[in-house]
Specification:
Elements: E1 37-40, E2 42-44, E3 47-55, E4 61-68, E5 75-78, H1 79-84, E6 98-99, E7 104-109, E8 112-117, E9 120-123, H2 126-132, E10 138-140, E11 149-153, E12 158-161, H3 168-172, H4 182-185, E13 211-214, E14 216-218, E15 222-230, E16 239-245, E17 252-255, H5 256-262, E18 271-279, E19 282-291, E20 293-296, E21 308-313, H6 317-325, E22 331-333, H7 335-338, E23 341-346, E24 351-356, E25 369-370, E26 373-378, E27 381-387, H8 392-395, E28 403-407, E29 410-411, H9 417-423, E30 431-438, E31 441-448, E32 450-451
Parallel strand pairs: 4-10, 5-9, 16-22, 17-21
Antiparallel strand pairs: 1-12, 2-3, 3-4, 3-7, 5-10, 6-9, 7-8, 11-12, 11-23, 13-24, 14-15, 15-16, 15-20, 17-22, 18-19, 19-21, 23-24, 25-32, 26-27, 28-29, 28-30, 30-31
């Protein structure tokens, strides 16, 4: 496994994904098979946080927040925490990803208890705090779902973990070699599965509109699907992209070299440029685009999502992930796509079930109407880390590294990075007053908001 490929693609651009408003029956009221575990989660701009407890070699229990991240193969915990519970020798090398020297003795998520969890990856959680202003203990990867079916409802903010499966369908579903073309490797059935073919354990959780698409599991446990993307609002002559299913990515992501190779017309899409995306393998240059049309390979013809916002990342992250899974990877299927559905990740059957929202998902109306700066928490300070090209902030001379001291007279601090980002939003043409500091210079400026995307 290429350790540097393990990532949390929290694309900290402008403001991240909104909390979904899916209108669906609450998961907690449904009848579930015996042994189902219901886990509530907090939605922080698309980062799904849930409470879990771990016990290490010292026997000490530690409880805190974890991010659900199916883009990760394994359980990952913060290096300093690993040292404290006795499963890592030290936390000196906080900049890279490595392996713990001992397993987690016990991992508890709701009523689910798992013993001797291994391997355990070590990470520096600072990248998460930079974007959401919240400390987390680690990431819950795909390993939790391998023989289970997990139903994720963004509207109700509940994760349902069905009991582990041990049947013929589950044992037949093996790991895949990704060297072939996607149409040969993950071909969809001629008639996509609809509710009439829903397994009994999902019959009450998903509606009659639900459908499923196949996936493969590769590398260290990454879930790989194929998506069709068009340069037009209709899926006319779409290009196919191999994407990793990543609930830890607050935006869906495309890697720039893959777009250039498969769909060069993307350069004409509406875009917000001049940003960066922090990942566990380092910061990457980024921009936000509007994708005219995207659908999953194997989905019904009418299940096309139009106008999805997505991040486009530069750098070598796609190449590193491809080496990890043994075949091309051209992006991540993240929250800006998944929030439009109640989803079921069926690890045993190797299928992703999607139940479309009955009502349109309300995005924040002014998510991309602001002055054009990207903010992060740096040691408790609110720092500008990106300036949108040709934005009001760029015209006013703001720079990367400037500190925001107050917004409209209210003090701003790093841990409030999400609240600060929302405070910058507003109708185009309205103004916001910032107090800024650059070195020894401190000044106040009024900037007019503009529609950026």
């Amino acid at each position: 496994m290429a350790a540097r490929c393990f990532l949390l693609a929290l694309t900290g651009a402008l403001v991240l994904s909104t909390v979904s408003g899916v209108a669906a029956e609450p998961l907690v009221s449904l009848h579930w098979p015996a042994g189902t575990v219901l886990v509530p989660f907090e939605d922080l701009e698309g980062a799904l946080l849930m409470t879990a407890t771990i016990r290490g070699a010292t026997g000490r229990d530690t409880t805190g927040s974890f991010v659900l991240d199916t883009g990760a193969g394994f359980l990952a915990i913060d290096r300093s925490l690993a040292a404290a519970i006795g499963i890592a020798r030290d936390s000196a090398d906080g900049s890279s990803i490595g392996l713990a020297s001992a397993p987690v003795a016990c991992f508890e998520l709701g009523r689910l208890r798992l013993g001797r969890v291994s391997p355990v990856l070590l990470m520096n959680q600072d990248v998460v705090q930079r974007v959401i202003g919240r400390r987390v203990m680690g990431l819950i990867g795909e390993w939790l779902l391998r023989d289970r079916c997990a139903v994720l409802d963004p509207g109700e903010r509940v994760l349902a973990l069905l009991p582990a499966r041990d049947d013929e369908d589950s044992t037949k579903a093996g790991r895949a070699d990704l060297a072939e073309e996607p149409s040969r490797r993950v071909s969809a059935p001629e008639n996509p599965l609809r509710s009439g073919s829903l397994p009994p354990d999902l019959a009450e959780a998903l509606s009659a509109r639900s459908f499923s698409v196949p996936f493969v599991v590769a590398g260290d446990g990454k879930i790989v699907l194929v998506a069709k993307v068009s340069a037009l609002a209709t899926l006319t002559r779409p290009a196919r992209f191999r994407l990793i299913l990543d609930t830890g990515a607050t935006k869906s992501v495309f890697f720039r070299d893959g777009l250039d190779r498969r769909l060069p017309a993307w350069r004409s899409w509406p875009a917000v440029r001049g940003l960066s995306a922090p990942t566990l393998s380092g910061d990457e240059s980024a921009e936000i685009v509007r994708v005219p049309a995207i659908a999953l390979d194997g989905a019904p013809e009418d299940e096309v999502l139009r106008g999805m916002d997505a991040a486009v990342l530069g750098g070598d992250l796609g190449t590193a992930l491809a080496a990890d899974v043994g075949g091309p990877v051209e992006g991540l299927l993240g929250y800006s796509f998944l929030k439009h559905f109640r989803i079921a990740i069926d690890g045993g059957r190797r299928r992703l079930w999607l139940d479309p929202a009955r009502d349109p998902v309300p995005d924040r109306p002014f998510e991309y109407s602001q002055i054009g700066i990207q903010l992060e928490d740096e040691d408790g300070a609110l720092i500008v880390v990106g300036i949108v090209e040709r934005s009001p902030a760029a015209r006013k001379g703001l720079r990367r590294g400037d500190e925001i001291r107050s917004i409209d007279g209210k003090p701003a601090a790093g841990p409030d990075v999400l609240a600060a980002a929302r405070a910058l939003e507003g109708p185009p043409g309205t103004g916001v007053v910032l107090e800024l500091q650059r070195g020894d210079r401190r000044w106040t400026i009024r900037i007019i908001r503009q529609r950026l995307l």
